[in-house]
Amino acid sequence: MKKISLFLLCLLLTPVGMAQDIEPEDAIKYRKAIMSAIKGHNNAIRSIVSSKVPFSNRLNDHVMSLQQLYAELDQIFPEGSDFGKTNAKEAIWDDPDKFNATIKKSQEALDTFAAVIAKGNLSESASAAKKFGKESCGSCHKLYKKKDN
Amino acid sequence: MYPFIQSYLFWLLLALPIFAVADNSENRGEYLFHLANCYGCHTDVENNGTPLAGGRRLETEFGTFITPNITSDEEAGIGSWTDFQFVNAVKHGIAPSGLNYYPAFPYTSYRNMTVNDILAIKKYLMTTQPSSLKHPDHELKFYLFRQFMPVWNWINNYLQARHPVRINRAAYVVDTLGHCHECHTPRNFLGMLDMQQRFQGNESLKAPDITPSEKGLGDWSKSELEELFTEGILPDGDYVSDHMAEVVEFSTSQWSDEDLQAVITFLRKVD
Fold first, then answer.
1. How sure is the predictor about B156, in pLDDT bands with cuts at 50, 70 and 90?
2. CATH annotation of A23-144
3. Which of the two ends of chain B, N or C, has the fewest CB atoms closer than 10 A to its terminal CB?
4. Which of B45, B207, B232 minimises the CB distance to A138?
């Protein structure tokens, strides 16, 4: 019996157990950091495709970073992170299936955009960037983000 | 007999230009419909509602307003409304039943719309798919009654009369059709727009200052404003959210380039 109790105690203290118990404010901070990173790469891409800066050789890097960040989107809205210093709307947790479908559409929009970027045509990329922004960030914010304070 | 003919001639002369111009293409009505942003409020966007069938819940400090069906359905929508009834509703906030609307419906802005434009919008709405959806009553604070609205209108008209209507195309798009005041101008305790603080933002709606001051659009470039209205992008690269995202999608992104440029010039200069 003692052995079983010790085993259960160890199990509770493992890093896996701790990872599942993220404090809501930490989850919100992490989410905001991911969103800021997405915004940063997005801004960089828009500057490049509109020929405001001459770093077209870095375009793929930014798109790949976005793809990695987008892969996390369905994990950064855990239960309990719906209040506090967040502009995320309750609708995310009220209907998670609909929210996950919106995220999936965003990821698909990014894949479509990445395919255009890969062709290397800047003017085509510029109009694709507008479409991508509208179909990913824009459509998600419309439904799931409150206005900033 | 003579006074009757006089009266008849008067109404005929008044009506002639209206109907001569009102018989325009559906595109014009559709464009005005976008400028007036009817879609956003009359569609339950969050719940994938039927277009223009209403049911959208507008949360305000006075309670929750549930928007009505404005499809061409004869019972639930506006299908059976006469032109007069439609104009009376849009310009004066009076329903065909004679009851007053609450100013959550922005008739206080729309009242400066021309009759021709109102009828062009009606003509477009009559081409939309009918929906028989009906909705429950608004969920408002206990002290709100429609019967008070004529008094509210009278006081509001008295106060607004001190602030002359701005007359040019951009002002017509911004103040009248776009009804930007309704969110971006603070309100007094009676819910009336405080025009002394025109466009200085409404904290309770989290609607920002859009005057050309430093607090507002002062440091926005022309291209940043273009990106806002066409794509919903803010200067820091973020995207507008919530209600403003709908305004961009259903209204400002549909503006003609001529209207877009006129509005940008107007917003960067007006006081």
1. very high
2. 1.20.120.10
3. N
4. B232
Residue B239's DSSP bridge partners are B233
Q: What is the ipTM of this complex?
A: 0.78
A148 at B interface, C-beta within 8 A: yes
Same domain, B172 and B155: no
**Number of domains within chain B:** 2
In 3D, which of B27, B250, B58 has the Cα closest to residue B120? B27
For the stretch B8-29, pLDDT in tens is 444 444 444 444 444 456 599 9
- Same domain? For B120 and B197 the reply is no
- The reply to whether B29 falls in a domain is yes
Write the CB contacts of A35 (distance below 8 Å, at least 6 apart in sequence): none
Asked if A134 reaches chain B (Cβ–Cβ under 8 Å), the answer is yes
* Model confidence pLDDT, tens digit, residues B78-130: 999 999 999 999 999 999 999 999 999 999 999 999 999 999 999 999 999 99
In terms of domains, do B148 and B28 share one? yes
Contact between B242 and A43 using a beta-carbon 8 Å cutoff: no
Rounded Cα gap, residues A120 and A19, in angstroms: 41
